[in-house]
Design goal:
31% of the residues lie in helices and 30% in strands. The protein is α+β, with helices and mostly antiparallel strands. The chain has an 8-stranded antiparallel beta sheet with strand order 5-2-3-4-12-11-10-7. It has a two-stranded antiparallel sheet with strand order 1-6.
Length: 215
């Protein structure tokens, strides 16, 4: 029997749908769902290495969504984002009991998630500057790609652009993730925190998490 997530209200359901739709456009096809009491953490991936020789870091987007009650059983599952969107669509206008897809997805990035504690504050970054980095990176990728590029060329160009550092220790791919997922607001600075192997960039709209290549 499929696990059911009792979403708190219709605004929460709509926020989850928008998060998943943005992720499908900007990132990979899978999400990891982790329930913690009356909250649901949803992780998606906007960038990950394609092999042990790929130099790009793992970049995740995460948002927490409220539940009206604890699920009958704790949920920790990796599923296809589109399958979850299909189930949201089936809820109709008033439904809030979201069934977790029963078919699991296997994806390497979901095997290691950021820690819940042990973070150290590391300053802030101007949100407008991050948005500029994302916009410039998108333009650079578009300009560098030939008319009919193969997959290898696309990945090489993206790695060269998004792997560059925005500021020391923070790749441009983090700015792309924050902008693409709608986390940036011009009047809200982006809070930076670090753990042993992760970097976290946070606003009130969500978190971008970057795992170092050594992590």
């Amino acid at each position: 029997m499929a696990a059911t997530l009792p979403l708190a209200d219709h605004a929460t359901r709509d926020d989850l749908r928008i998060f998943l739709e943005r992720l499908v456009r900007a990132g990979q096809a899978e999400v990891r769902l982790v329930s913690r009491g009356r909250a649901l953490a949803v992780y998606g991936c906007t960038q990950a290495p394609r092999g042990i020789t790929d130099p790009v870091p793992v970049v995740l987007a995460m948002r927490a969504f409220a539940l009206s009650a604890e699920p009958e059983e704790a949920v920790d599952a990796t599923v296809q984002a589109r399958a979850l969107l299909d189930r949201i669509a089936r809820l109709g206008i008033i439904g809030l009991a979201l069934e977790v897809p029963e078919v699991p997805a296997m994806v390497a990035w979901a095997g290691v998630l950021p820690p819940r504690s042990g973070w150290e504050p590391a300053g802030t970054i101007d949100a407008a500057s991050m948005a500029d980095v994302a916009a410039q990176g998108i333009e650079r990728v578009a300009a560098a790609l030939p008319e009919d590029p193969g997959e290898a060329v696309v990945q090489r160009v993206r790695a060269s652009v998004w792997g560059a550092e925005m500021v020391p220790g923070i790749p441009a791919s983090a700015a792309f993730a924050a902008e693409a997922m709608g986390f940036l607001r011009s009047d809200e600075p982006v809070r930076v925190a670090r753990s042993l192997t992760w970097l976290r960039l946070s606003t009130d709209r969500g978190h971008v998490l970057v795992r170092s290549l050594l992590g």
